[in-house]
Amino acid sequence: KVTVFSGMQPTSAALHLGNYLGAMDNWLKIQDLIAKHNEVSPGHKLIFSIVDLHSLTATKTLSPKELHSNTLSVAINYLASGIDPQKVILFNQSMVAAHSELTWIFNCIASFSKLSTMVQFKEKSKSNSQSISNGLLSYPVLMAADILLYRATHVPVGDDQTQHIEFTREIVNSFHHTYKKKYFPLPTIISSETSKRIMSLQDGRVKMSKSDPSDLSRISLTDTDEMIQMKIKKSKTDSIIGISYDIQNRPDISNLLSIASVTSGVSIADLEKEFKDKQNSHFKDFVSQSIISKVKPIREKINYYQANEKIVRDILLEGSDKANQIAINNLKQIKDIIGLYH
Ligand code: ATP
Ligand code: MG
């Protein structure tokens, strides 16, 4: 049976287009697929989490109020995007204590030198070289615990998480080797071909991120139509005439082409043909309209859930009950394998 696990950090109140096109879009496709499979042969599981413990590693510490409200907002972003609590277990990470317990166990088999060479660690510690926390170093260990606690087989994430999934597979191997017992599956990454890495609107060489200090760098799912138009208008381009896809030499235009292609359903080749001799401003109008067609319906649903917060709190409570049932049972089995008295 298939078990799918994934999550996003509540490092900001809204998800952005990179989160949506790089990960959420696949979550929704898998949700439909698994629901169909479950009708014929039940037992496949889908587990999506708001990973609040991960967000404690953020460079800029969130205030208690922010963290609390961001967590609820990210849950709202999931629901508004189409995540259906009837089909998936949707919960907040810190409400399932076993994530932290399994992280400690994995910390004791994870390689310190490997962790210190991980790309995300190196990038995120650059911006805060004064005080790098142990938590930031240990981020991939917590992620391995998230995935393996449910013995997940598939993990739909963006391209920036590929190295962490490989790390998770190494944890599986070293656990089996250390304790001489096979227990975990080797999880596989699921990533989208066309949008596994959406880039910043201000710099086509770095990925779009919640934690980028510039709001102009990203389109958030809560942005109004006017904000989307303004951000695309101000997005970086180059001085080469016409529109063409060339990641090496034209990263900014290429990023806009990718975004326009996945949001409109028109292939990059067809967009190139159509806008080849047109001005940037014509192309940018098309890009904004095509983003708006995706974001507007989600934004409207976000507004609905924000006005009906109680529904969301109840969904998270129910989700954490279901997640805890699986997690507590699996953690017991893991403790038995290790010899931890319980
Ligand atoms: P932060 O800057 O706080 O790390 P983030 O924008 O990177 O935030 P995460 O919560 O770390 O978002 O990641 C959530 C999911 O979104 C992950 O599956 C990640 O791979 C994916 N993702 C994040 N940014 C992008 C992007 N620019 N393109 C495609 N996928 C992305
Ligand atoms: Mg991230």
CATH homology group of the largest domain = HUPs
How much of the sequence is in beta strands?
Answer: 5-15%
Give the total of domains.
Answer: 2
- The averaged pLDDT comes out at 97
Strand element count: 5
Which small compounds were modeled alongside the protein?
A: adenosine-5'-triphosphate, magnesium ion
Main sheet? Answer: 3 strands, parallel
Named at the architecture level, the CATH assignment of the largest domain is: 3-Layer(aba) Sandwich
CATH fold topology of the largest domain? Rossmann fold
The CATH class of the largest domain, by name, is Alpha Beta
Structural class: mainly alpha
The coarse silhouette is globular
Question: Could you please describe the fold and organization of this structure?
Answer:
Keywords: Aminoacyl-tRNA synthetase, ATP-binding, Ligase, Nucleotide-binding, Protein biosynthesis. It is found in: Mitochondrion. It is a single chain. The chain has 342 residues and is mainly alpha-helical. It folds into two domains: 3-191 and 309-338, 3-Layer(aba) Sandwich (Rossmann fold), CATH 3.40.50.620; 215-303, Tyrosyl-Transfer RNA Synthetase, CATH 1.10.240. The chain is built from 13 helices and five strands. The chain has helices spanning 17-40, 52-55, 64-81, 98-107, 112-115, 119-126, 134-149, 162-179, 225-233, 251-264, 268-275, 280-307, 309-338; strands spanning 3-8, 45-50, 89-92, 154-156, 188-190. Strands 1-2-3 form a three-stranded parallel beta sheet. It has a two-stranded parallel sheet with strand order 4-5. The longest helix has 30 residues, at 309-338. The radius of gyration is 21 Å and the shape is globular. The two termini are 28 Å apart. The mean pLDDT is 97. Residues 8-9, 11, 18-19, 22-23, 58, 157-158, 160-161, 196-198, 207-211 line the site of adenosine-5'-triphosphate.
